[in-house]
UniProtKB/TrEMBL annotation:
The chain crosses the membrane at residues 27-47, 67-88, 100-123, 129-160, 172-193, 205-226, 238-261, 281-305, 317-339, 345-365. This is C4-dicarboxylate transporter/malic acid transport protein. GO terms for molecular function: sulfite transmembrane transporter activity. It comes from the Eukaryota. GO terms for cellular component: plasma membrane. Residues 388-415 are annotated as: Disordered. It comes from Cyanidium caldarium. Pfam families: SLAC1. The lineage of its organism: Eukaryota, Rhodophyta, Bangiophyceae, Cyanidiales, Cyanidiaceae.
Length: 415
């Protein structure tokens, strides 16, 4: 056979379904909650498409279609997640001891939260009160999952895992961001059910949950800034995770501004009536404050990712770390522009929405290509660079110079 024929056959073999999949069981065995990131990114894009006040013809229908894609992705990921627990229970339980993959458990309630948002935006206008009931039920399920994540994942970090300052990444945020994301969903649900007593419960719980989660997120950002200043940037395999700070800051800005705006309708009478008059304006001010903090992290992430791409950035599921954070950041800007009536914010948010759509198409293409060949199922994300430094065994000499040796070398240099 000629060289041309061999190369053509080789190319056709690579295009076959599962051509790079070592074992079909790996689809379940190597499944990680990070796959819920696809539903997260698609869901927030669907919400932004339907939420923008400056719409193009057919944009609402596009958002509606993307919401259904989100539902399909969430259901498919849930089936694989449950299958892994049924078929490989020991491997599934080990995730709680893993210092990286355990964080992705927070992706599950975040992804469900985007479905709740889409239900309010697309289903409720079509089904009326039945759509509201669906949104309420899904929100309560999501609330329980978010509380479980915010409480349990940090405890796993403390008691079951090993971490060090040199390995702090923004992936830590995924363990506590669900509390902020579900509060944002609650802020959208509360005004829809404002004339029922249930709305006050949603408002109170959303405020309490964001109070529990957002300060933890800010604490993690302090630790991460400490790491990048005194140590080094994350490995290039996970450098896209530098966009993750936009998740709590964007969702937090959306939640606080929207909860403040909804307060006047949720508390029309009673002791809270005297306080809700200023809640709307205060929510907008705090929302812009958080969004501005998020803009710094956005600029920082763009810079470090652009530098990493010049050196070659291998594709993995971590690239989806851009989609939801940027979508939440955009949703917050759109909401602030609507509440404050500032048209430039609305226009910029609309531009961000279409930029997210373009990025989503690239992510979807690269992911679908590797799912088709099975490449993404061959093993979990390579995270050796994220793990704490290995403790040296007794009697093993360290390859790193001691503090005394560094001082001696510096003195020799000066002499």
């Amino acid at each position: 056979m000629s060289e041309g024929g061999k190369s053509k056959k080789s190319l056709l073999d690579k295009l076959k379904p599962g051509s790079e999949l070592r074992d079909k069981r790996d689809v379940v065995l190597h499944f990680s909650p990070s796959w819920f990131g696809l539903a997260m990114g698609t869901g927030i894009l669907a919400f932004d498409m339907g939420f923008t006040p400056l719409r193009f013809p057919g944009q609402q229908d596009l958002g509606w279609a993307l919401w259904w894609v989100t539902v399909v992705l969430f259901v498919a990921a849930s089936v694989l997640f449950v299958a892994r627990w049924v078929l490989y229970p020991k491997d599934a339980r080990d995730i709680f001891e893993h210092p990286v993959h355990s964080m992705f458990l927070g992706c599950i309630p975040i992804a469900l939260g985007t479905i709740v948002d889409g239900t309010l935006l697309f289903i409720q206008p079509r089904l009326g009160y039945a759509g509201v009931i669906i949104a309420i039920v899904l929100w309560w399920i999501d609330f329980v999952m978010a509380v479980a994540a915010v409480l349990s994942i940090p405890l796993c970090m403390i008691y079951l895992q090993s971490h060090s300052m040199e390995t702090v990444t923004c992936i830590w945020l995924l363990g506590v961001v669900p509390g902020v994301a579900v509060s944002a969903s609650g802020s959208l649900l509360a005004p829809v059910i404002a004339h029922s007593g249930h709305a006050q419960v949603v408002e109170y719980l959303s405020l309490a949950l964001i109070g529990a989660a957002l300060p933890l997120c800010l604490t993690i950002l302090v630790l991460f800034f400490n790491r990048i200043v005194f140590h080094h940037l994350p490995a290039k395999e996970v450098i896209v995770s530098c966009f993750l700070p936009l998740s709590p800051l964007g969702a937090g800005a959306l939640a606080i501004s929207q909860l403040g705006a909804a307060a006047k309708n949720v508390f029309p009478s009673g002791p809270m009536r005297e306080y809700v008059r200023m809640a709307g304006g205060l929510g907008i001010f705090l929302g812009y404050f958080l969004w501005g903090f998020g803009f710094w992290w956005f600029a920082f992430a763009c810079f470090v990712v652009a530098r990493a791409m010049r050196e070659g950035l291998p594709f993995n599921l971590g690239w989806w770390s851009f989609a939801f954070p940027f979508g939440a950041f955009t949703a917050a800007l759109l909401n602030l522009g609507i509440l404050s009536g500032w048209v430039p914010a609305q226009a910029l948010g609309t531009g961000f929405t279409w930029a997210l759509f373009a990025a989503w198409l690239v992510l979807l293409y690269r992911t679908a290509k590797r799912v088709w060949t099975g490449q993404l199922f061959n093993g979990p994300l390579k995270d050796a660079a994220l793990l704490p430094p290995r403790e040296e065994e007794e009697g093993e000499e360290s390859e790193r110079p001691s503090e005394e040796m560094r001082i001696e070398m510096a003195e020799l240099d000066r002499s």
